[in-house]
Amino acid sequence: MPRPCPVCGKDVPEDPRPPSYPFCSPRCGLVDLGDWLSGRHAISEDLPDSEGAPAAAEGEPE
Question: How far apart (Å, rounded) are the C-alpha atoms in residues 28 and 9?
Answer without folding.
Answer: 10
